[in-house]
From TrEMBL:
<protein>
    <submittedName>
        <fullName>Tripartite motif-containing protein 46</fullName>
    </submittedName>
</protein>
<feature type="domain" description="COS">
    <location>
        <begin position="155"/>
        <end position="212"/>
    </location>
</feature>
<dbReference type="InterPro" id="IPR017903">
    <property type="entry name" value="COS_domain"/>
</dbReference>
<dbReference type="Pfam" id="PF00643">
    <property type="entry name" value="zf-B_box"/>
</dbReference>
<dbReference type="InterPro" id="IPR000315">
    <property type="entry name" value="Znf_B-box"/>
</dbReference>
<keyword id="KW-0479">Metal-binding</keyword>
<feature type="domain" description="B box-type">
    <location>
        <begin position="7"/>
        <end position="48"/>
    </location>
</feature>
<dbReference type="Pfam" id="PF18568">
    <property type="entry name" value="COS"/>
</dbReference>
<dbReference type="InterPro" id="IPR050617">
    <property type="entry name" value="E3_ligase_FN3/SPRY"/>
</dbReference>
<keyword id="KW-0863">Zinc-finger</keyword>
<keyword id="KW-0862">Zinc</keyword>
<dbReference type="InterPro" id="IPR040859">
    <property type="entry name" value="Midline-1_COS"/>
</dbReference>
<dbReference type="GO" id="GO:0008270">
    <property type="term" value="F:zinc ion binding"/>
</dbReference>
<keyword id="KW-0175">Coiled coil</keyword>
<dbReference type="InterPro" id="IPR016181">
    <property type="entry name" value="Acyl_CoA_acyltransferase"/>
</dbReference>
Amino acid sequence: PTLSFRPKGLMCPDHKEEVTHYCKTCQRLVCQLCRVRRTHSGHKITPVLSAYQALKDKLTKSLTYILGNQDTVQTQICELEEAVRHTEVSGQQAKEEVSQLVRGLGAVLEEKRASLLQAIEECQQERLARLSAQIQEHRSLLDGSGLVGYAQEVLKETDQPCFVQAAKQLHNRIARATEALQTFRPAASSSFRHCQLDVGREMKLLTELNFLRVPEAPVIDTQRTFAYDQIFLCWRLPPHSPPAWHYTVEFRRTDVPAQPGPTRWQRREEVRGTSALLENPDTGSVYVLR
């Protein structure tokens, strides 16, 4: 706001003529030429003097009301300051709750990660053990090593009974080794495709993670609300609003002097349904409800 309210000029910007009238439709000052032009045809135009008196009366009335209700202004300031403090506290609590929940999700994911990695590790070690055993078996088939070396030594035996005694069991082992060479395949697969994760659904859920939709502010049903010796208040939710489990009804008198500090509302907590009965109101008093 500024205390310097006087315009720099009172000439019509279109015709450079002195303004003599006020167009209520366009809410601007106009000159005599403006009145006869099509621009303001059919508009409500009044002399400047009439507009001056009407606006001055309205401004005086509004200013008188504001100055006469300074206690109300101060009370509302206190209520707003209390709302600021409550907003700061509630906002911090909301941040902490979200952080705690997200940390909880992280802990669950970390636990699941450890479990999956442990399963892969066990599978990997079991396969490595089988492959290592198979390598050892094949190394024994190298010239001069293990089973082959032993067979080569047995073949040098010239004593027939001794040869038969040694070769009887050796032949079975050599036969199995021969078959293993002919039908060779690794004892375990090196692929871990069965350990791939499909996290598409989970990623979509995490991406869509958001705050709960809260119900919109209810609208008082003036057709069903009435007051006599009791106040019967009815309301409804706007279309497409999420449902509400319960409501809080607040009410206070407006015809009593304002008290210092935040406005005191009377409350009715945990109201089920879309109506409430306020019994024994003060006769002849004016109430505001929300």
